[in-house]
Amino acid sequence: TTPAVRVSFLRATAPAGADFALWQTGATGAPTLFFSNRPGTTAPQVFGLRRGQHAHFNWGFSQPGHYRIHLRLEGS
How confident is the model at residue 42 (pLDDT cuts 50, 70, 90)? Predict the structure, then answer.
């Protein structure tokens, strides 16, 4: 149950005024937000993956343009 990989959102470089988000959609269709560069976000900005876990995530960008997403991955 201990995460084998810890993924942390550090920062995003985005077009002026643009937002980035990473989330999952549950079985009921409700989204769980993990990362966002929007000021004041309540996203946890970190999650863990267990050994052998299979997961899908949605990446969202509010405007066209170039985004640079900085993540830290720590594993055991």
Answer: confident
